Amino acid sequence: MSVARPFPSSSTLADLTSQTTAHHFNVTPLTSHPQKEHHETSSAMGLKTLSAKAAAALDKELMSTGAFSIDQLMELAGLSVSQAVYRVHPLSKGQNVLVACGPGNNGGDGLVAARHLRHYGYKPSIYYPKRSKNELYQRLAQQLEDLNVPFVDDFPTALKSTDHIVDAIFGSFKKCSFYCWLSFRAPNVVISGFSFSGEVREPFPAVIKALEETKLPVTSVDAPSSWNIEDGPPSSGLGSSFHPEVLVSLTAPKPLVKHFKGRHFVGGRHVPA
Questions:
Q1: Is position 225 annotated in a ligand binding site?
Q2: pLDDT per residue over 45-95, tens digit each?
Q3: Reported pTM
Q4: Domains with residue ranges and CATH for the chain
Q5: CB–CB of 34/178 below 8 Å?
Q6: Is 167 annotated as ligand-binding?
Q7: 192 contacts: CB under 8 Å, gap ≥ 6
Q8: Which residues partner with 101 through β-bridges?
Q9: Is 107 among the annotated ligand-binding positions?
Q10: Contact 125, 98 (CB under 8 A)
Q11: 222 is in an annotated binding site
Q12: Residue 270 — pLDDT band, cuts 50, 70, 90?
């Protein structure tokens, strides 16, 4: 199968690394609700961020008033992630990208990103140990298989032959409350609101530990896996020393960005001004 290599436009992506205001991304409500219902200001960075409750409300509007489908939102999110990887890790730095996907929507974003990266000319491989039985995720995986994108079983071993890592394991579960009707039931995590909490179960502890220890650049989707959407990294234990080089916030930054020091993008800018 021939592979097209379109130049990845950045129209859905904003680089906030050096920005001190929120002027370059859109978190305007789709209805006439006061902005304070959707915004939470992070004084540490001067950015407006979305709390868990506000992110849930915004996603609800996107899927009702905004008339977006779940497939569309996931496609836009994954496209944004692929564009960010292209920006920070051009093909000249190495073509091998390992995409670690969790069992839920963050993992779906990773599957979409991998497909776009394949079309850009990268050689992605997928670590997806807890495949969803939902049709949407099965179709996303099938699309990658049709492109001859390999699925790997051993994450630490796969690290030895990659140049860049995409962390799409847990994130902040930003979309969970409105995607859960897709039959996502993750036995390995606990979902509290839109934030990761609880014990990380097999096989993911070893993966997060590897992410903490690797010298390879890591791009995290919406939130570094194991981080809390409000409070950032755990104070101790697994994930406490995981600080990825790149973060792609989806729709708008979350409060955890005050703990993030790397390259920061906002993707999926599909909310009208």
A1: yes
A2: 467 888 878 877 887 888 888 888 889 989 999 999 999 999 999 999 999
A3: 0.80
A4: 40-89+96-267 (3.40.50.10260)
A5: no
A6: yes
A7: 198
A8: 168
A9: yes
A10: yes
A11: yes
A12: low
